[in-house]
Sequence to fold (399 residues):
Amino acid sequence: MPPISPTPDQFPSTLYGIHDVEGLNFLQQNNCSGWLVHSVHVWNDAPADYTALRNANCRVITRLNNGYGSAGTIPLPAQYDAFAQQCAQWVAASKGAQIFIIGNEMNVAAERPQGQPILPADYALCFQKCRAAIHAQPGFANVQLVPGATGPYNIETSYPANPTGDWIKYFQDILTALSGQYDGIAIHTYSRGQTPSDITNQAKFPPPFQNNYRGFLAYQNFMQAIPANGRNLPVYITETQPLIQDTPNWLNQNTSWVAAAFAEINRWNSLASNQPIQALTLFRWLNTDPNWSFSPKPLVLEDFRNALAQNFKLRLPRNVLPGQTLAQAALAAAKSKSWMPVNNQAALWRFAQVNGLQDQQTDELSMTFNGENYLVQVFNLGIVYVKVGDWGNIKVIPK
Fold:
């Protein structure tokens, strides 16, 4: 299935986001219509109701995980079908979410199931099964399914087509393997330090990674690696934070790092030729690790408030028109597919209605048998056929 076109109501007003739904109160206190990222364990965590979050004019990006650590962010291949069905059941029982990410940083060894590397072809197969299972749920055919973000600066997963384990190559190989069958793009990026200059630092790695930025500007490497069939899709940076001496850490300082990070993404979006980025979410709100969490650090929160005061508005993806109504978006989605013609004066169609065969499933199909021309048409409860001209002698094959 090709990408699902997003509608304007799937987006908040601004770029600003927080990893963890518990950050909602902070956004509300600062009158921010922004993003929240929710990471869930689909086997253990109860399906979530995000109605209150949507009513606060915020939007959620839900990340579906098979597990954490050695359980694997996605399972071993033998469990792909079961994982896909569990994801589908979790999504179907949830409320208020329209964007779902499958897995996380699949190239990182710590995310492997029982230590088995997740190669791009493996991940693509798992993702496709999850996407098909979720879209098959009644009422969820149009939710956005997004591949998991690649771990930047990580070279732990190598394979014949990528012998150095280049993270940008891994990211690109997954999107290529998916052949346009995904609905958005997730990115992680971090800086080497917590000052504004660390956001725009252009330092790159030594060979063989001499084209890859070492810090926050790695987001640009990912953006440039997006295949042509993904250039109109939404892009979400679902994790960012400073690395201090190469280790994730928030220092309790207001250095204007947060403000500079949002200003950089806004600068990128201001260039009309660039594929816009719809979200930048700070990792993380929950205090699961004192180095990862910024919520207990008042000077970082002060920096964040200053960033919010800049009020950087979200630039919609190229395949969504600003001001488009829900009805217009539905019409655009309908026009993206070929419509099946209905001729309610045709003999086969009238025969099907009289005989209770329900709705048509195909147009009239032409065939030749023993030199004679016939028409065939499929309906819910039967396949009808007739020799051209012999309209009073229509036959039906029950289904």
